[in-house]
């Protein structure tokens, strides 16, 4: 689908936007692109305070009318730490667009401070905490008649998930399978997050997106594995895009007319259903497993029951 953020994103006046991982890569590109269309406020998170200040300075220069707020937040942190950061930092009365973008990829084996596999804990569970904390704001804004969106950044890498899709028995194990299987599991979980939110709260348009192959710090940091040489070769081919262009599918999902979007869908760049993109890569059959998606939703609701 032809898409140009400069001309195809409509006026965002009055809208409040929240982007995780907004200090670099796709997240930063999305924040800057959205700010150009005059939203009321943009909140963005990151782990690096100086990077947050730098993006804030860019926004004040390029979009001085937009209220900008940086929230320092590491999604690998304990759930209550994430909750406290969001509750303290998010002061708006509404939330129109939530973009769950932050993440890590193919990192060495490790656990979060709460004992979860680091990629699952960061890419999925940290965002699940965030969505839970901001859920009432999203639902309240939708109730007021806003075209409210949840956009979860996944990846074609979800196809690398283990055969079971989500290995519940290994979620507290650092080194189950390969680093790419663990990454794939986290990205499959992200797809399920959007699908399940759409099913349980259909008043919010919730989708997941594959940004394409993007040249960012995320792709710079992959650890040594059998796939790493492939990525290193691809990074210098036309298949790899800049962060600005990598943000296009995210921006499309966040701002396209509601009648162009199917609630709960996983989209390839730009705005393409799986397998229909010119350079499409499709989705795994596991994505269609509604029972597994619901099992993960119920597991997550139970795990995060102490997060209000």
From TrEMBL:
GO molecular function terms listed in the Swiss-Prot or TrEMBL record: oxidoreductase activity
UniProt superkingdom: Eukaryota
Keyword Oxidoreductase in annotation: yes
Keywords: NADP, Oxidoreductase
Keyword NADP assigned: yes
Pfam families (UniProt xref): adh_short
InterPro entries, A to Z: NAD(P)-bd_dom_sf, Sc_DH/Rdtase_CS, SDR_fam
Gene3D superfamilies, A to Z: NAD(P)-binding Rossmann-like Domain
Family according to the record: Belongs to the short-chain dehydrogenases/reductases (SDR) family.
Protein name per Swiss-Prot or TrEMBL: Oxidoreductase
Organism: Aureobasidium uvarum
């Amino acid at each position: 689908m032809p898409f140009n953020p400069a001309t195809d994103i409509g006026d965002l006046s009055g809208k409040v936007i929240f982007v995780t991982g907004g200090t670099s890569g796709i997240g930063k590109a999305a924040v800057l692109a959205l700010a150009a269309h005059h939203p009321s406020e943009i909140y963005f998170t990151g782990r690096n305070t100086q990077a947050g200040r730098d993006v804030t300075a860019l926004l004040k220069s390029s979009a001085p009318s937009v209220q900008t707020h940086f929230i320092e937040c590491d999604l690998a942190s304990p759930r209550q730490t994430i909750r406290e950061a969001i509750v303290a930092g998010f002061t708006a009365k509404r939330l129109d667009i939530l973009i769950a973008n932050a993440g890590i990829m193919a990192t060495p084996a490790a656990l979060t401070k709460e004992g979860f596999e680091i990629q699952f804990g960061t890419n999925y569970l940290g965002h699940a905490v965030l969505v839970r904390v901001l859920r009432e704001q999203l639902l309240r804004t939708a109730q007021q008649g806003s075209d409210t969106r949840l956009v979860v950044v996944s990846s074609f890498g979800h196809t690398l998930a283990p055969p079971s899709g989500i290995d519940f028995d290994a979620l507290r194990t650092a080194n189950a399978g390969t680093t790419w299987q663990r990454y794939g599991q986290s990205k499959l979980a992200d797809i399920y997050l959007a699908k399940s939110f759409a099913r349980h709260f259909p008043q919010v348009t919730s989708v997941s997106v594959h940004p394409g192959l993007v040249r960012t710090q995320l792709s710079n940091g992959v650890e040594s594995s059998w796939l790493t040489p492939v990525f290193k070769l691809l990074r210098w081919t036309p298949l790899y895009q800049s962060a600005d262009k990598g943000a296009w599918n995210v921006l499309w999902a966040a701002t396209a007319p509601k009648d162009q979007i199917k609630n709960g869908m996983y989209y390839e760049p730009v705005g393409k259903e799986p397998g229909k993109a010119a350079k499409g890569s499709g989705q795994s059959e596991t994505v269609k497993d509604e029972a597994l998606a619901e099992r993960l939703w119920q597991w997550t609701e139970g795990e995060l029951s102490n997060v209000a």
